[in-house]
Design brief:
Chains A, B: It is an enzyme of class 1 (oxidoreductase). Two copies of one chain form a homodimer. The first copy, chain A, contains eleven helices and five strands, in the order ααβαβαααβαβαβααα. By secondary structure, chain A is of the alpha+beta class. Chain A has two domains: 168 residues, NADH Oxidase (3-Layer(aba) Sandwich); 74 residues, no CATH class. The first copy, chain A, has a four-stranded antiparallel β-sheet with strand order 1-2-4-3, sandwiched between helices. At the A-B interface, helix 1, helix 2, strand 1, helix 4 and helix 5 of A face helix 1, helix 2, strand 1, helix 4 and helix 5 of B. Strand 5 of chain A pairs parallel with strand 1 of chain B, so a sheet runs across the interface.
């Protein structure tokens, strides 16, 4: 197994960071790695905002599920879907791309581009011995956080990402078995037995892991979080910024 | 620079593959790497379909922009957003998650999870000397391709990915300058000058690259593809599968 695959397989989310900050050089190296990712039709439909102002970071953390480690020493990136620059460039070229950028597919394109870039940054960071945690909670507070970050129309925050020096590492969680995720030639709807076994595996894992213990299964945890987080404000917010209107 | 960052920075899309197929072991290793990625609230809201049947692959290629290299020796993966299994599990747990999974945020969650997994697979593949190409064109033919793959409700194909042994490699395209993508503390809407310089850089690149030459700028290329591909059928398709209805 090569060093890269080892890095990928050793991934865990880190939720406790030392006070050591990233250097400007590290940030530049990480963003360069992010930008090396593929991009749909090479549209580069994303932006990255680094939040360094302590007050601003504190406020964003409060709106993003109030997870305390966001304000620790790690660098806080917010990945955004972004077709604002394309909208401006289209006007300069006397072209109308409203139908495209206001359609739901453009929201997928921006989300995909932001996510490809983010995952490159994550793997680069982990290969340097840094730890990371995605902050999907940025979408819990997307309305307020967008105000704080001066997010204009045709841009929206997809998620946050903390990157820093790990204080402690969690255990690696077992994934859905291969056969439950990977299908051959056609979608296989009959994965109930596989998921039942997986629930047993995860129950054992949660009972025995080194951190916070519980006796829940994966199903209970995953379905519980779906039930808790409908984010029903999302459509109105996105439409208000010009996205996914048609 | 470590091996992993070198792999990441050397990425190019490969559009010509030898006839050598991936082994079952390689496929398993790649999917395991994909599964090691983070997942929003650990919901693992994605599935991967490997298309090996030559007839099926040929038909999908025709609907996905008819790019001939899809049917070459590489392995063809289709990454799907998937909350179908969560819907089934919620019913077993007597919970109603319709409001969540039918909201637009769930479509983002599934897209993010599929993309995180895919990018892990890409970097693992490239670290093994393989070449890759994302096929966003799968969404051009999403209606027909979903029929061919037996895609049920609460699942949709996000993109395809070809992974195989490269026959030839393209040059690496220059990206938007760092300052155009990375903003500090607040979104910076004034990137017009940076993008103007970038257009000069890309024009020179396209005029001099080893493959198909042209004298277009990045703006013209990116805006042109937005204008060409509104994918205005996407909302109807997604709604029909239960997604993004509210």
């Amino acid at each position: 197994m090569n060093q890269t695959i080892e890095t990928i397989l050793n991934h865990v989310s880190v939720r406790s960071f030392t006070e050591q900050a990233l250097t400007e050089e590290q940030i530049k190296q990480l963003v360069t790695a992010a930008q090396a990712a593929s991009s749909a039709s090479f549209q580069q439909a994303y932006s990255i905002i680094g939040v360094t102002d302590p007050d601003l970071k504190q406020k964003i953390a409060e709106h993003a599920g109030n997870q305390p480690f966001i304000t620790e020493g790690g660098h806080f990136f917010v990945f955004c879907a972004d077709v604002n620059r394309h909208k401006q460039l289209a006007e300069d070229l006397n072209m109308d791309i409203s139908e495209t950028i206001e359609g739901i597919d453009a929201a997928l394109v921006g989300t995909i581009d932001a996510t490809l870039a983010a995952q490159n940054l994550v793997i680069a960071a982990e290969s340097m011995g840094l730890g990371v945690c995605y902050i999907g909670g940025v979408r819990d507070g997307i309305i307020k956080i967008s105000e704080l970050l001066d997010i204009p129309e045709y841009v929206f925050p997809v998620f946050g990402l903390v990157v820093g020096y790990p204080n402690e590492r969690n255990d690696s969680k077992p994934r859905i078995p291969f056969e439950g995720i990977y299908h051959t030639n056609r979608y296989n709807s009959n994965t109930k037995e596989i998921l039942k076994q997986y629930d047993e595996t995860t129950k054992l894992y949660y009972e025995n892991r080194s951190g916070r213990k519980s006796s829940r299964t994966w199903s209970e945890t995953a379905i519980g979080s779906f039930a808790r987080l409908p984010r029903s404000f999302m459509k109105g917010f996105l439409n208000g910024k010009g996205w996914a209107k048609r």
